[in-house]
Amino acid sequence: MTHEPGTPLAELIDEARCLLGGDADAMVDIRSLVSQLAGLDRARQLMELERLLPSATAARLRSAFERRAAGEPVAYITGFKPFWRHEFLVTPATLIPRPETEHLLEWALEKIPPQQALTVADLGTGSGVLAISLAIERPQIQVFGCDLSRDALLVARENESRLRADAALPIRWLQGSWLGMFKPESLDVIVSNPPYIRPDDPHLAIGDLRFEPQSALVAQDEGMADYRQIIEQASTRLKPGGWILFEHGYDQANAVAECLAQKGFQTISHRTDLAGQVRNTAAQRV
Ligand SMILES: C[S@@+](CC[C@H](N)C(=O)[O-])C[C@H]1O[C@@H](n2cnc3c(N)ncnc32)[C@H](O)[C@@H]1O
């Protein structure tokens, strides 16, 4: 029996550099693909350059490098993206969760004290990152993970089954548009990262956004259409005293706050992301 010698890791990394360039961003992508597809963490990648990778692994990596060179996001190639404390399955049916959205989660957790059995809706749940992280951090609450997209909800359900411990998580998945399926005064907290990019925004033709679902990214009315609809519906679906917390674009804080104020919301406040951009707004129904 003959044994295939395999391909040295160093050779594959050189090939990847030729395809993707050797700058810092390209190296982050290369390291991440090797880590997830060959099971070698960064330290081993640095120390085991002579390691021979079997032909199936080498082929998988070469295909991944080519897909990345064609612009496909790393998360769609590997199928996973870390968020908060877990790795979430993502597909082209879901937005790739962004680190900024962890700020929205953190703020929502401050509004949901441990032990308080509140009812919470995550509107536009996508891969389920917010709904599932909330349910894991606050198992006493009832969470509704809602989305218009059936395919996104299938991914969210899959993430729930992968990430739940022995007991089921307190989540119900609902397909429908925003708050249409909720009764008046039925929710204590609403979190949402809805589509907010203007249809003519040139960023839609650049980078990862080219591969993500338009239905998760784009909103009419200067990117404000979905906020207006959610805020209108939330003004009756939230219980008095209930909170709504949004993620939005860096230049939409004033427009979102104005819309909230017009519908009678109070205690309107904002938070910035690590880059100092105002990316979250929260308000309370009186
Ligand atoms: C920006 S993505 C957010 C995904 C996820 N929450 C996250 O932060 O990674 C917006 C989500 O809203 C969903 N969506 C778009 N229009 C909707 C509607 N009318 N009702 C409910 N969900 C909608 C999209 O399918 C998409 O999953």
From TrEMBL:
Methyltransferase small domain sequence ranges: 109-201
- What reaction gets catalysed by this protein? L-glutaminyl-[peptide chain release factor] + S-adenosyl-L-methionine = N(5)-methyl-L-glutaminyl-[peptide chain release factor] + S-adenosyl-L-homocysteine + H(+)
Q: Which Pfam families match?
A: MTS, PrmC_N
Q: Which GO terms describe its biological process?
A: methylation
Give the binding site residues for S-adenosyl-L-methionine.
Answer: G124, T125, G126, S127, G128, D147, W178, N193
Query: What keywords appear on the UniProt entry?
Result: Methyltransferase, S-adenosyl-L-methionine, Transferase
Q: Does the keyword Transport apply?
A: no
Q: Which residues bind substrate?
A: N193, P194, P195, Y196
Release factor glutamine methyltransferase N-terminal domain location is 11-79
User: What SUPFAM superfamilies does the record point to?
Assistant: S-adenosyl-L-methionine-dependent methyltransferases
InterPro entries found in the cross-reference section: DNA_methylase_N6_adenine_CS, HemK-like, N5-glutamine_MTase, PrmC_N, RF_methyltr_PrmC, SAM-dependent_MTases_sf, Small_mtfrase_dom
MF terms in GO: nucleic acid binding; peptide chain release factor N(5)-glutamine methyltransferase activity
Domain of life here? Bacteria
Q: What is its EC number?
A: 2.1.1.297
| HAMAP family named in the record | RF_methyltr_PrmC
Q: What does this protein do?
A: Methylates the class 1 translation termination release factors RF1/PrfA and RF2/PrfB on the glutamine residue of the universally conserved GGQ motif.
What the entry lists under NCBIfam families is as follows: hemK_fam, RF_mod_PrmC
- Per the similarity annotation, which family is this? Belongs to the protein N5-glutamine methyltransferase family. PrmC subfamily.
The name on file for this protein is Release factor glutamine methyltransferase
The species is: Halothiobacillus neapolitanus (strain ATCC 23641 / DSM 15147 / CIP 104769 / NCIMB 8539 / c2)
